[in-house]
Amino acid sequence: MLTDFTNLPDNSRIWIYQANRKLTDEEVEKIHTKTNAFLEKWTAHGSELEAGFELKYNRFIVIGLNQANASASGCSIDASVHFIQELEKEFDVELLDKMNVTFYNGEFIAHKSLTDFRKMAKNRSVSGNTVVFNNLVNTKAEYLENWEVPAKESWHNRFLA
Q1: In this model, does residue 46 exceed pLDDT 80?
Q2: What is the mean pLDDT of residues 81-106?
Q3: Sequence-ordered list of residues with C-beta below 8 angstroms from that of 48, at least 6 positions apart, any chain
Q4: Virtual CA dihedral for 17, 20, 25, 26, nearest 10 degrees?
């Protein structure tokens, strides 16, 4: 059951998929339509899942699930991953690779491999004050409060000299 993302409770489970490139407005529109259709039919053991999503900065697909009514099962999580894989193929974009870092580089959003980010930290091209996207947040509340944070306040801190 599709619901507006803003209506999900703060303890809703969150999955964040970051694109390795900025999506075009046309791609975002198509992904929005496809994600709506997927979430309308998303179930766990025959029970409807109350879920919503956001597409942020033409780079991130953020799916939230209210687990008060029904929790995601292994099969429903597999279905969502399969859906994301279909988007990857259709739009020739990486969404599941967790070995990358997305961060603000001035007013722009940059996407680098962990290795490149580590090199940038060593060269002081990024610092503890560089705002990163912490895609490891688990709940909507964490997403709203701790998703865009200085690297020194995130797991990215381990790469800073």
Answers
A1: no
A2: 94
A3: 1, 42, 69, 70
A4: -90
What pTM did the predictor assign? 0.92
Distances from the Cα of 111 to the Cαs of 38, 70, 79, 137, in angstroms?
Answer: 27, 34, 27, 18
Rounded Cα distance, 59 and 61, in Å = 7
* pLDDT over 90 at 68, yes or no: no
pLDDT band of 161, cuts 50, 70, 90: low
Alpha-carbon distance 18 to 97, whole Å? 8
Give the closest residue to 42 by CA, choosing from 11, 14, 2, 5.
Answer: 2
| Sheet containing 100-105, strands listed edge to edge, beginning at the edge strand earlier in sequence | 108-113, 100-105, 131-133, 148-150
CB atoms within 10 A of CB 21: 13
DSSP 8-state symbol, 139: B
